[in-house]
Each structure stands twice: as C-alpha cells, then as structure tokens.
Amino acid sequence: MTRYELEHVLSGTGGRLRGDMPVVATLGELQRDARLVTPGDMFIAILGERFDGHDFVTDAFARGASVAIVSEIWATAHPDVVSPLIVVDDPIPALQRWAGWWRDRLTAKVVGVTGSIGKTTAKEAISGVLRQKFRVHHSPGNLNTEVGLPLSILTAPEDTEILVLEMGGAYALGELTLLATIARPDVGVVTNVHPVHLERMGTIEAIAETKSELVVALPMTGTAVLNGDDARVRGMAARANSRVLFYGHGHGNHVHVEDIESNGLKGSSFWLTLNRKRTHVKIPFLGTAGVQAALIALSVGHVFGMDVAEMMTGLQDRDVEVRLIFVPGPRGSQMIDDTYNASRSSMLSALDVLGMVPAKRKVAVLGEMRELGTSTVEEHRVVGGRAGAVADVLLVYGEKARPLAEAAVEAERNEQLPLEIHEFRLDQRDELQDWLESNLDIDDVVLLKGSRGLEMDHIVTALRADTNPGSRQ
Predict the structure, then answer these.
(1) Predicted TM-score (pTM) of this structure
(2) Predicted local distance difference test score (pLDDT) of residue 472
(3) Tens digits of per-residue pLDDT, 152-164?
(4) 141 vs 107, 149, 450, 456, CA distance in Å?
(5) Residue 81: how many CB atoms within 10 A of its CB?
(6) Residue 242 and residue 54: Cα distance in Å, rounded?
(7) Residue 447 near residue 354, CB atoms below 8 Å
(8) Do residues 336 and 354 lie in contact, with contact meaning Cβ atoms separated by under 8 Å?
(9) Spans of the chain below 50 pLDDT
(10) How much is the pLDDT for 471?
(11) Residue 299: how many CA atoms within 13 Å on its side-chain side?
(12) Alpha helices in 14-78 (DSSP H)
C-alpha cells in the first residue's frame, strides 16, 4: 500500500491546503474513483471525457477520504465544504507536476514502453526479467495515459532501481512528448506501428510519428530498443540521439531469434542470438506475441548488463502477467483469454495460437475492432479469412464485425472446411454468454478477443470454472 506525506503532496502539486489538517499528516492511497475510496485515502477530482470528478467529492468524503485535490474554480464555488482540500489550478497538470517532482527524487532508471499493440505484455515480461537483479516497480494494469502514467510513477517506492512504465500516446501528436517529459526515460522500447486508432490519428504515418516521440526524447546516454522487423519502427533510429538496439527475427538485428517452435500449451522455444552467442531457450508464452514479448524483455535485460541465464529465470516467473492466458471454462473446456484489446495483427496472432493448440473443437469468439476508420471493413475481412481457416465454430460479436463473418464463410467455402457461425449484436452479450455456457464441452478450446470497449472480459469472468462455482461443469 502506497502512503503519502501531505507536505510532499503540497510541494509536488504546488497546491495550497484549505481546511484543518497538520502538514505532517500521512495520507493513504490516491484514488480518482470515489467508489474505491477507503478511510484515510486521498481523492483527486479528475475531469474525464464522460464525467467530472468534482461531482463526486462529497461521495469521497462520505467514504472516509482524508483530503480531496480539487480545482481553484470548484473550491471557490463551494466555500461551504469544510473537509480538507488541496486546491490547485487544475488537477491533471497538478498530478503531472507531482509525478515529475517524485521522479526527481528517485534515483531509478526508467524504461518506457510504447507501440500500437503489445505494450502491456512487453512491460510485464521486461519487469519479470529485470526483477532477477534489480528492485523493479512497473505500471499496474495499463496505466499509460496523461493521468495513468503519473499515477504509476507516484506508486514507485523511493528505493526503486528500475521503473518500467507503459506509455500510450495513441490519440494526438505531442502526447508521448508530454509523458516523456514527466517520466524522463533512460530506455525507450517501441514494439510496433499498426493501424490502431486510425479514426483519431488519421494515417498510419501519424501513428508512427507519435510513437517516435519516445525515441526523440531519450538522452544521449540512453538506449532505444526498436523492433527491427517493423520498417516504420526501424526508421525511428535516424531520429535517435541515443544508442539504438534492434531486436527481431533477422540477422540484421542486434538481438534476434530463429527456428521458433510451438510447444503447444507449454509455450514456445527458439534459438536466441545475443552478443554473437547462440542459445536455445524455452518460454511459457504462447504464439508470435509471446515470442515477441520475450525478445523485448531479453533485449532490455541485455541493456542493463544481465546474462541470458538470469534473464530466463525471469521469463519463467509465474507473477509475470502476460496477455493470452488459458483459464478453465465450462464443462471442462479451456478458454484463451485475450479480451484486453483487438487489432488486425493481434487478432491474427491470437488465431495462430488457437490454430496450434490441440482441441476437440476450436471456437473463436471475435468481437468487433474499433477506431479503424475507413479500413474497418477490410481489416475485419482479413481476420475473418483467417478465422474461417482455423476455427470449427465462430461466434461474431458486434455489428461492425459482420464483414468478418462474411469473409469466414468465403474462406470456409473455398477451403471446403466445416464451419459453424453464429452472430450476436452488441445488445446480445447475455445470449452470447449463454451459448458458450450451454455448448462448450470437455477438450474444447475457445478464444475470446475483441476491442476493450466490448468488455468481453466480463464474459470470461462469468464463465471461469475456477472462480465461478455456478458455472455448469
């Protein structure tokens, strides 16, 4: 549990205390959701896209908040509030200043991880490797935005040696520059550039430009760890002031893998070349995405002077929470939970995993992919073609995913493969869940994947046999 000193909060935010509270007070967790407040916690009133945290200040105090960080405008408009307030110009910039202030106090090296997909998995794998030698703190969950990243920094203990931070920057140019100004990374990892968030960014070139901001921000003493197999990422090396380390599958990369083999549910194995030394390694991660995460983690560990043997111990760590995990489902089935997010590349990678695992029936539950702009139909059709070639049963969730189902039918007809297809609208999540609970059977493997906004993780939670006693076996 993270605790904060009031005098540090005031110094970091530049705020002023209104109300009765000793400056030497120790405060509890920092919460931005009033529903999560427990006695002694701080509450920060964040203005979001769908809500204004100031509307919940009273709720936070009712739940036992010790103090609330609020804007000057709100505090002036509410002189009757007697509970302690930290009054700032605007809570979000104040939070960012505070995180920067705390970053200045840390002696830790910072690893920043960005890219279109695979950031969270890479961050987890990197942390698992580095923990074998250093005191490591990393972003919880996917806190990678102009609000999430400061929150991640503020939870880092003062004795942290390496801080691993996921960095978003998906919506506008300049976002990653802002995050890098706060975090001041020493190592910057770019996983890839894919057409994700095209509706906001407009072009894939704009996406690449915003990701390159992390590379540009690195100091001369730092290292850019770049995906050498992605032409747009590789091209970022020309803009780096720091050392550059390429990773990938070809000999043109400083760290590279060859002869990848699937070991089914046990993971993957491959030959790793590092420092011109070739080593055969086995990892518990599944599919192309798992190999990529391991390769990134090994590259970053190498930057920090670790040898392959101690790094491999980290990749076996059960505490490394990578995406694409197997969980027990209804009636003895197995579910591949990859519900965090979806893009064409990550969908295809997940389908490749489904294709390689042994199963009586292979069931793909694929939700619509969002923020693809004019590429929406084409991207869904590509995924549908692969799904039709891999799955025995395809459940399509969401109206935008109809082209996926159509392409799957064509693939099934062309390849003469038996394929059962069911389509569900967005308002039919309960019906989708009921179908799975009633029709999955022993030795079935089901992949669940879709855009984060579909909240398909709720389906997994409801059907998990190890946490849901009511699930039919």
Answers:
(1) 0.77
(2) 39
(3) 999 999 999 999 9
(4) 23, 11, 18, 17
(5) 17
(6) 42
(7) yes
(8) yes
(9) 323, 469-473
(10) 44
(11) 32
(12) 57-62, 72-77
